[in-house]
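Hi R.,

Here's the chain you asked about this morning:
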Amino acid sequence: MAALFFLAFAFFAVGQASVTRNSAQTAADSAALAAARERRDAVQDQFLAALAAGDPDLLGRLLTTVGTVDRGDPCGTARQFAADNDATTTRCDALSGPVGYVVDVVTRGTVGTSVVDGTENVRATATATAVVEPRCVFRDKLAAALEFTCDHREVTIDPKAGNFRLNLATFYTVHLTK
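And here is the predicted structure, written out as C-alpha cells:
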C-alpha cells in the first residue's frame, strides 16, 4: 500500500513539474508576442504619414522592413508580460533576420515540495520567438484611396476619410515561430 501512495505522489510531482513548465512557456510566449507587437506598433506614425502622402515606395519599404523606428521599449514590454505571468525575463534580443524578438524566461515559483528530492528549488525555463511579418502588398494609388492586397484579398484604404482609423493588424501579422 505504501508503494501505491509513493507512486501516486510521484505522479503528482510530475504533474506539478508539468504545470510549472507550461507556466514558463506561457510567460515566454506572451512576452515574445508583446515585444514583437510593440515593435510593430512603433511604425504607426510612419505608416500614417506614408498613407497620407500616398507614397508607394515608403509604403513598400514599411511593409517589408516594418519601418526603421526604434520607438518604444519592446523588451520592457516583454519584461512586464513575463512578470504578469509570474516569470522573469533572462534574455530579450531583437532578431537579426526577420523583425522580431527572442525571449527567455524563468518562473518565479518553483515546482514545489514533493516526494522527489530537490523539487522545492527547481524553476522552469522557456524560450519563445515572435516575428512581425507583412500581410499586404501595395498595389495601386487611386484618386483618393490606396489599394493593397492583404492575405489574398483586396483592401482599399482612404486615409483622408473622416472615419479612417489605422489598424496595423490589417497590414502585419505578429506570431510565434520556432
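One quick note: Helices lie at 2-41, 44-53, 56-65, 74-84.

Cheers,
M.
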